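Many introductory courses stop at the sequence. We go one step further.
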Amino acid sequence: MSPRFAPDTANALPLHLLDPGALTGPDSPLSAAAQGWLQASGFAAGLGETTLLPDAEGGIAGAVVGLGTSEARRRTRFGLARSVAALPAGSVWRLASATDPALRDELALGWLLAQYRFDRYRPAAKPANPATLVAPDGLDAPRIEAIAAGEWLTRDLINTPASDMGPDELEVAFRALADRFGAAVSVIRGDDLLTRNLPMIHAVGRASARAPRLLDMRWGNDGPQLVLVGKGVCFDTGGLDIKPSSGMLLMKKDMGGAATVMGLAQTIMALGLPIRLRVLVPAVENAISGSAMRPRDILTSRKGLTVEINNTDAEGRLVLADALALADEEEATAIVSMATLTGAARVAVGPELAPYFTDDDTIAAALESGARAVRDPVWRLPLWPGYETMIEPGIADLDNAPSGGFAGSITAALFLRRFVSNPRYLHFDIYGHNPADASARPKGGAGQGARALLEALPALLEVPK
C-alpha cells in the first residue's frame, strides 16, 4: 500500500469542515435537520471532532469535522486528520465546500500520513481499509502524495529493527530506491574503505560482523547539485564506552538521518525536480569486539584532520565527517547532513523540533518559512564561534566528545563544519521518533526536517519556484 487519494467518484460522501461558530444558523452549510442532529449529539466542533450525519433511511449522508479554535490548530499539527480513524473503514469522502488553502493542504497531507501502519511483524493485526479522501479542488495532489510516500519510507526504515535493518539491508533498500528512479549507485565496503580513504567510517564499523560501507547515489543530469548526507548507524551499542541497556532500546533509530534523506530523495525524484541529486549514507553498526576503536585513540580523517576519540559513543559525527569531506570535494550548490546525533538536542528542544545549523541567514529564513507552511517544525541553533576551543583537545586537531557536557549539539555541529568548506552547508540534529501517538504521527519512526527542506529548496539551490 502507498499513500494515494481516492479517485473522484459519485459515491464519495460529503465532508464538512465546521468552525465552532457556524454549527447552526444562517452561516451553517448544513440543513436544519443536520443542525438539529449536531445539537442533539452534543457536537462542539473541537479540532478533529467527527460526527456522521444520517440520511432519511438510516444510512450515512455525510460527516462533519470540527475545525476547533485557532489556538487549538496552532498547538496541534494535523489535528483534522483525527477524522480518519473516526470514519467508517473503506468509506470515500470529498470536501463539501472550499476551505482555506493552508487548511486544505494540511488536511490532505495529514489524511495520507494518518493512514500509515507498520504491520511487517503483525500482518494479522492489520486494520480494515481506512477511509479515503478525494483530492480537494486546487490541491497539488501528486506533490502531496510524493511527500507522504517519502515519509512512509522514512518511517518504515526507522521502525524496522536492527536484526532486519543492518548495513546489508540498508544497502538493499538504498539500491531499490535508486532502481525505482534510474539513479546510479556505488558502494565502498569493508577494508576497501581504507584503500579509498574513508578511514573513520571503517574505524566505527570494523568491530561489527556486518561490514561498514559508504552508499553513494546519483540522480539527474542538469541543474544545481544538492548533496544529502545521512547518518546510517544501524545500531549503536556505544562501543567500548557502552550504553546502559535503557540507552540501547531506541538505537534501531540511530540510522534516522539516513532514513530521512532517503525519504526526501524519493520525494525529489518522484517529483522530477530539475536538480542533480547525490545521496551519501555511511552505513555501519557501532559494535564491540577485539577490533573496536578505543577511548583516546587518534584517527586520521579523509580530510587529513586528526581526531582524538574521547568517547566511542560519539561515533555518528565520525562517519558523517568522512562522508562530508567526500561531498565537499565536488562543487555542490548545497550540502545537507541529517543525523540522530546528540541527546543534547533533545534536552534543548524536545522530540518534536528539529534543530538545525547554518551560517546563511537567507537559507534559515527560507527554511523557517517552509517549516511553517508544511507543519514540519525546525529551530535554528547557533554555530557559536566561542565554543570552537571546546572541540580542540591539543593532542589532535579535533575532539569527538568534549568534556563538561555543555552545548553538546552545538559542538557536534561545529565539529562537522570543520569538514565542509561549502558556505551553503546545513546540518540537522533530528530525533527521528515520536514517543507517543499523535495526529497523523503514530508512535515510532518519524521524518523531521525533510518537508521543510523540500519547501525551502528554491532558496537553498537558488532556483525559481
